[in-house]
Amino acid sequence: MVRVMATGVFDILHLGHLHFLEEARKLGDELVVVVATDKTAERGKHLPIITQEMRVELVGALEVVDKVYLGHEGDPFRIVEELRPDIIALGFDQFHDEVRIKAELRKRGLDHIKVVRLPKFDHDLNGTRKIIKKILEGSSRFRTIK
């Protein structure tokens, strides 16, 4: 059984997230997803719009996901040690440095884990920031809605 681990914030689920998880799932037999905590997301990207509990529930409801976990504060490799995946799937736009990840895995005796960078999914609204920008640009059309 090949366990694949994918991580992310998953704020405002969109097709880019779904495509990323579907592609990650193709790499193995089981897909475990680690959702970043609100504090981790805020430090790395932005304060999420959707709470961590809601993001965990939403991601867990996706058919492609076998198990979902909330990440830990501080040491991002702690969850890797706990889940012991065979493959870590990275999205094309995730800021993670593959060389650094592999070095840390080696240091922790987890050098059997492969790190795979997935290809870009080309879609108009494939990013949370793009979606928010589009909403804000069109917000004047919705001012009369109560």
Summarize the structure.
With 146 residues, the protein is α/β, with parallel strands linked by helices. The protein has helices at 15-25, 38-44, 52-60, 78-83, 98-107, 128-137, and strands at 3-8, 30-35, 67-70, 87-90, 114-117. A 5-stranded parallel β-sheet has the order 3-2-1-4-5, with helices on both faces.
Question: Layout of SSEs?
Answer:
Elements (H helix, E strand, L loop, with lengths): L2 E6 L6 H11 L4 E6 L2 H7 L7 H9 L6 E4 L7 H6 L3 E4 L7 H10 L6 E4 L10 H10 L9
Parallel strand pairs: 1-2, 1-4, 2-3, 4-5
**Number of structural units classed as domains:** 1
Number of helical regions: 6
Indicate the CATH architecture: 3-Layer(aba) Sandwich
Number of strands: 5
Mean pLDDT: 87
Rg, please?
A: 16 Å
Largest sheet: 5 strands, parallel
End-to-end separation in angstroms reads 51 Å
Unreliable runs: none
> What class do helices, strands and sheet pairing give?
alpha/beta
Can you say what the CATH homologous superfamily is?
HUPs
Q: What portion of residues is helical? A: 25-40%
Commentary on this structure:
- This protein is α/β, with parallel strands linked by helices and 146 residues long.
- The protein has one domain: HUPs (Rossmann fold, 3-Layer(aba) Sandwich).
- The chain has a 5-stranded parallel sheet with strand order 3-2-1-4-5, with helices on both faces.
- The protein is 36% helix and 16% strand.
- Helix 5 links the parallel strand 4 (87-90) and strand 5.
- The protein has 6 helices and 5 strands.
